[in-house]
Structure formats: C-alpha cells, structure tokens
Design a protein that fits this description.
about 240 residues, disordered N terminus, LPXTG-motif cell wall anchor domain protein, signal, globular, mainly beta
C-alpha cells in the first residue's frame, strides 16, 4: 500500500468517483470484516448505457475503545460492460463517524460539506474500465457515545450527476462493549451508544426522512430503510495535477 498523505484543497475539487478504504495504522482493521456489501445503496441519476456503478462497504468493522480509531474498506466498482467515463467518489462522515484522511484525495472544505455532515473527501477515479474496481485508504474515528454514518456518492467528475449513492448508512451495535478493547459494529445497524455512566444505553431516536445538503441543487432523499440519497450536488474540487 502506498503511504498516506494529508490532502490539501487547492481551488475547486475536480475529483472523480472512487472507492474508499478506511484503514488506520495501529488500529483495529477491517481485514476480518467479512464480505463487502452494497447495503444502503441506490442508483440515482441514469448512468450511460452499459455502465453499472456501485460501491461496497465491509459488513463489519471494529472501533478501538481507547483511541476511537477504526478501519473501513470502501470500494467503487463498474459492473457494466463499458467504461464509466470520468467519475469521482465522495466519502462523507456523519454524527459519530469522522473521516480524518483519504489517501491521494482532497478534503472538502467546511463550507462545502453537506449539511449535517462533519467531514468529507473527494477522490478522483477517472475512467473506470468495465469489470474493474478501485479502493482507497481512509483514516477515521468513531465516537461510540453517538450514532455514526458514512455516505459514498459516485458522481460525474463535475458533480452534476450522481449515478449511485450508498448511504448515509449507519455502522452500529445494539450490544456495546465499553470494557472491551474494541467494539464490533455492523453495517446497516443503528448504534445504541453507552451512556456517560457506562451502564445504561441511550436510544438514538428515529432516522430523519430528509436531510438537506445546504447547497443549491443538492439533497439527501429518504429511500426507505436503505437510507438517504445524495443527488446533483456540486462539490468544490482540487485542481487537476
């Protein structure tokens, strides 16, 4: 794996759809997270003919109860029979899940983040050939006293269309382990955080049906139990090169 570096936003983020991998040095890894899943994902805008874009997240991750660090593998795939054209993928954190860094990608400035999110990165995928996939390393933390969600929209490189969006989909547990070294979290499970006293569980409450993104032309739409979808959002990007 190539070494990680902190991305600096310079000018508009001209990224292209991607797949992300949350891996932290010295933290609980996602290697044993079982098969990857597209749970919480949905096609949004119509993709070009014979192009089928999806993303994948691990079914299970673990959070270090001391450092709050975690690792997630997120992958973008073209399951169609033709090349995708230039695309980008965004990695956006919500609530207790904070995306700290994504390898070779650009941080979305605070004033460009979707409303309700706490962090995000835009990654250039470029042209993804038919049958191919791409993954990235992403540093993240998870505050187990809160619920936590992640969102992976796959867009045209200019952000005008969103072909696919996974999330915001939760990672969580209904059986917290505050005294254990790490807490396992399952994809698509609402987290029941431990209260400050450590003996009682706090209810996270019902999910919101609509979460605006705060920028013109952007919205997260409810899609049943699967989550909320991000469509037609422009995100400031990194200058090419």
């Amino acid at each position: 794996m190539s070494s990680r570096r902190t991305a600096v936003v310079v000018g508009p983020l001209v990224a292209a759809s991607f797949s992300a991998v949350l891996i932290l040095s010295g933290t609980v890894g996602a290697e044993d997270g079982g098969p990857a899943s597209s749970k919480g994902g949905k096609a949004v805008d119509k993709a070009p003919a014979w192009v089928r874009l999806t993303t994948l997240l691990p079914e299970k991750i673990s959070v270090d109860n001391g450092s709050k660090k975690t690792a997630i593998t997120a992958t973008v795939k073209n399951e169609g029979s033709k090349d995708s054209g230039k695309i980008r993928m965004l990695v956006v954190g919500f609530d207790g899940l904070v995306v700290k860094n994504v390898e070779d990608c650009s941080a979305i400035p605070e004033n460009g983040l979707p409303e309700g999110s706490n962090s995000g990165f835009a990654c250039t995928v470029g042209n993804l050939a038919a049958g191919k996939s791409k993954s990235y390393s992403v540093d993240a933390t998870y505050d187990l006293s809160k619920a936590g969600k992640i969102c992976l929209p796959v867009q045209t490189d200019d952000g005008k269309k969103t072909f696919w969006q996974q999330g915001p989909v939760p990672f969580g547990t209904t059986n917290p382990s505050p005294d254990a070294p790490a807490t396992p979290l399952l994809l698509g499970t609402d987290n029941k955080p431990v209260s400050p006293g450590g003996k009682e569980l706090a209810e996270t409450g019902p999910a919101r049906d609509l979460l605006p993104l705060g920028a013109a032309g952007a919205s997260l739409l409810a899609a049943g139990a699967a989550g909320m979808w991000w469509s037609r959002r422009r995100v400031p990007g990194r200058q090419a090169g």
